[in-house]
Specification:
Largest interface: A-B, 64 and 49 residues
Distance between the termini of chain B: 44 Å
Largest sheet of chain A: 9 strands, mixed
Shape of chain A: globular
Shape of chain B: globular
Strand order of the largest sheet of chain B: 4-3-5-2-6-1-7-8-9
Distance between the termini of chain A: 15 Å
Number of helices of chain A: 22
Oligomer: heterodimer
Order of helices and strands of chain B: HHEHEEEHEHEHEHEHEHHHHHHHHHHH
Strand content of chain A: 5-15%
Number of strands of chain A: 11
Radius of gyration of chain B: 30 Å
Radius of gyration of chain A: 25 Å
Largest sheet of chain B: 9 strands, mixed
Amino acid sequence: MSDQLIERTRRLLDQADVAFAGVPGSEALGAARARLEGPLRVAIAGKVKAGKSTLLNALVGERLAPTDTGECTKIVTWYHDGHTYQVMLYPRDGSSPVQLRFHRDDGAIEVDLEGRDPVSVDRLDITWPSGGLRKLTLVDTPGVDTLSEGVGERAFDFLDPKDTETPADAVLYLMKHIHSSDLGLLEAFHDESVSQPNPVNAIAVLSRADEIGGGRIDSMASAQRIANRYGRDSRLRRLVQVVLPVAGLLAETAETLTEREFGWLVELAAVPRKEMDTYLLSADGFIQARPETPLTSLEREQLLDRFGIFGIRQSMALLRAKRVRSSVELARELTKRSGLIELQTILTTLFVDRAAVLKTRSALLTVERLCEENPTNPASAELLLDIEQVMAGAHPFNELAMMAAIRTGRIVAKEDDLLDLEQTLGSAGVAPWQRLGLTADASEEQLRTTAYESIGRWQRLAESPLASHDLSQAARVAIRSLEEVVAGFG
Amino acid sequence: MAKPDPNGDVRAVLDLAMKAASAYERPDFAHRLNTMLARVNRPDVQVVAIGEFKQGKSSLVNALVNVNICPVDDDIATAVHTIVRYGDERRAFALVKPASDPDGDGQRVAIDFDQIRQYATELGGTDPSLLVKGVEIEIPRKLLGDGVILVDTPGVGGLGSAHAAAGLGALSIADAAMFISDASQEYTRAEMDYLAQAIEMCPSVVCVMTKTDLYPRWRDVLEINQGHLARLGMSRPIIPVSSLLRVEAIRRKDKEINKQSGFPSLVQYITNDIVAANAQRNRLNAQRDVISVCDQLSGQFEAQRKALDDPEASAALVSGLEQAKARAESLRSQVAKWNVTLNDGIADLTSDVDFDLRGRIRGLLAEADKAIEGFDPADSWDEFEPWLENAMSQAVVANYRYLTERTSELSREVDEHFGSDGQDILADLEIHNAAQAMSRVGVDPSIDAEAMESGSRGLSALRGSYSGFLMVGILGGLPFVAVPALLVTGLGLGAGALLGRKGVKDEKERALTRRRSEAKSTVRRYCDEVSFQIGKDSRDTLRRIQRQLRDHYGSLADELNRSSTDALKSATEAANVAKADRSKKLRDVTAELERIKGLRDRAVKLAPSAVPPAP
């Protein structure tokens, strides 16, 4: 299905290449092709200090983006896979890109801007051979709501450029609690046009989830509760697909845990629990613990920087209970507790599995714009028709558009019906069991029965005289999705 | 541990002055002094905790008074103002209004302590027919015993949070504010905008950084924040605290942990800077009250003494006193300059304030209409609505500040007129240093702009009237800013199959125009409603101010009138005293004068530097 879509889009791009050769603006076709063939581009956005770079590192599984106590990322930075290590700088004035020197400071890539003002830089492009970047190209953006002049606007420029589409296919939106200014940025990425599916390509992340509960051992459960509540908020539902809690720092550290750090933690775990609890009352208390405590205060400070109070409490509990015996086991447990795995799963089901649709969309829009800008070109009319055919023929587009319509409250129906409709359309993932609300181990027989039951249900809804026109349309799209599921059984 | 009472001398002097007032049968003086004494005994100092949501405001208030009263939750945020004040025993009240009549009078109902959480958070009260406007808690705590009233406000910035205006509204009645932000990160732009507004409303704002226990790098954040404050020209101390450590310190009775929690510095700041500044103000005002009473009393005895001393000159004396009495009477009359200034001023103010509000709302409407033309209400109403409410609250706050400033000006003007007339009377009464006595006579401590650090500061006369609670009420529950159904019924997908491309386009445009005009009329209705409510409220407020000022100066005029009448009477009587009794009487009067002078000297000693030496 999606291969076919990509293939048709490729052909369309070929035709456009011929038709618009030499026309101003046609260089966008090359970019569109690169985007179609490359991995999905996921932007990480949010307010200043929401933990964007930290989460990026966790997702890559390597410490690449520099992080600091103060505001750190001031330039939009792309991280993508490649064969060589290279950093390119694209100036704002449109002059040709410059290759920059860099060094690694404790893992993080420190780029030497050679005295340039960050505001004069359009973006940094970092090529880095890494397994973590194979499926996704990640884009780190500066925080909004910052006090540094000219920096906060950059994220807006990137997600909502004035004259072109955003270069991002999907966005991970990070926040601590949902602040009203968070909605502003999400809104920028959210497009009102029906042809551009949304909010289906945005995920909200409560990124410093461990801090919500003050670093208590049950902080993540508390954060999950909050995420659930936000996920039901209508203002947010129309902007993002799901809300997930992730303890970003812990995730990053777990992904990059060293043997030395594990050794330190083991030493600390030998301290009697009561004594350790007193030290762990506060960050200062932990660093300035009694001199006979294991490790130097400098080492404890380093640990705290890497794990946070929550991470250390978790590690102590795991080690004391002998739940983990090696750094690998500890890393696995901490990753699990950080919420990173859920985020990765959701990223895969919602973005990666749907990458073809998300990517072709931008390519088709590029061609469409060229046609509209050159209405006299003999090929324009035909190309526009082709685009419409691809869009209309590609069922995934309809699914996305319908999901967006449900999310934005354009379709009025009973809440249960809407939730089930969304699920059928693939809101929880596009695998048959996900669409049918079953478990991953459901038998084919089970899947088939449930699918037929659902088709019946949506048919009745589509034909009900009480259903609004919009609702019956939505039900028809759902039926089509289920028919494809059934067809897949052969 | 008995601490020396820092206000003992003030109380003693006031007591003595009250005894004198009743001995000389001047209940009017006794009343004024009694009011002052009450203020010294219970100097209400409102300290308001403001900041964005989820920064630990409630935890901070709890840790300050060491009891879990303000509900703390990882998720659910504080929804209404919580007022924590001193009481001999634990009690809690909810301030509620019937939902059916949100403009009606509020009620204060007693609630259980474990119900506080329910009333104070987003969860709302138990009874849906009642709107919870606030929660008041009384507990016996030493810090509060000094007169501190802590106010926990709903944080701003969240999705369901109150508007910035709610917190700012509370500030208008505050003596000081704590701006609270946690140590997780440096200040954001939204926070700095909020702080700047807060500083304008209440000059005494201190920054508090919470949750230092959780963040090892809080010192770096503190330094960065201090840099931000300095750069924005709002430099002030930032007090780092950890509520968690404070609670732990109290539980373990551990002084060391308490020190680490940073709370001793915060408590010290509140008691030393905020409470002490207030006490100093009260001290000066008490001193001036007593001096004014002494001077008026001695005027009477002075007249008597003169008449006794030199009966030949008593005719001239009596005519002087008659003039004073006439002046004092005219000061009481409707046409006294101060009275005319007050009445005219309030009339002007009422129309000016109304005009100001209308102007602001008209500007807002124009802006809203322009904005609506630029988007489809079906898509963006949800974003537009908070913008509108926020812009409206800004307009209301600005209008309120205009009212405050103008009222300050007016009360100063009234005071000047009253003062210059009053001074003549005192001069007629031949009181030494009349100018100095008069500098205070007219001005009630609570509406003296000078005694407060800044003129932009709200008048205390406004307290409890045009207050933050009201603004929350008005700006919060706006029932009709719901999206009209028409706005969301967009045109379905796939309708193109039925209508054809052109038809769809036209139909879409028609629907959009309809939605826009519906949105505009919704905005208009909203503006009308706010304008009506705020307009009524400011008119009421101004009327209340008028009444307060009139009563205040009226009673001062009565005092002067009584003083001059008494002086005249005693002078006349003295002139008629038989020669034989004269020297005895003279001794008595001189003794009285000595006593009054003794009292005045004691009053001067309360704050020697504040009084210029008598000539």
